[in-house]
Known about the structure:
Blueprint (H helix, E strand, L loop, with lengths): L7 E4 L8 E8 L4 E4 L4 E6 L9 E6 L2 E2 L3 E3 L10 E5 L5 E5 L13
The site of zinc ion has 8 residues, from loops.
Family: Belongs to the universal ribosomal protein uL24 family.
InterPro entries: KOW, Rib_uL2_dom2, Ribosomal_uL24, Ribosomal_uL24_C, Ribosomal_uL24_CS, Ribosomal_uL24_KOW, Translation_prot_SH3-like_sf
GO cellular component, one term: ribonucleoprotein complex
Amino acid sequence: MHVRRGDQVAVIAGNYRGSRGRVLRVIPNENRVVVEGINMRTRHQRPSQANPEGGIVTFEAPIHASNVMLVCPHCDEPARARKRHDPDGTLERLCVRCETPIPVAEVK
Ligand SMILES: [Zn+2]
């Protein structure tokens, strides 16, 4: 997978082309990602135990990972990332444009 949870990504294809959002979830088996505010779906939910009110629920549906690009936080552009081992052996991602390491977001 070329993106991780918490990454800022740009959508490069489909209805949401040009928008950006944060990766909420990655589904490696299906090569899909869920991005905040992208690919919204509406469900008309019958009242249930979990949701006694029912009503109209909107949520993000997964999109294919190939349709998003990682956004470099340093140059604020969609960019590919090069991988490199830093001196203490951890894998680092470098923006191909500005060569700045792209940090992995803290998972809350
Ligand atoms: Zn950059």
